[in-house]
Amino acid sequence: MTGSEIETVSLDALTLVGLPVSGGWQDLPKIVPEGWRRLFAEADAVAALARKVDAYVGVSLAMEDGTFFEFVGQRVFGCKAAPAGLKLLHIPANNYRHRRHTGPLRAIAATFQTIYDDAEELGIPAGIFKLDFGYQADGTVTPHDLYIGIDPIAAPETH
Question: What is the pTM of this model?
Answer without folding.
Answer: 0.93
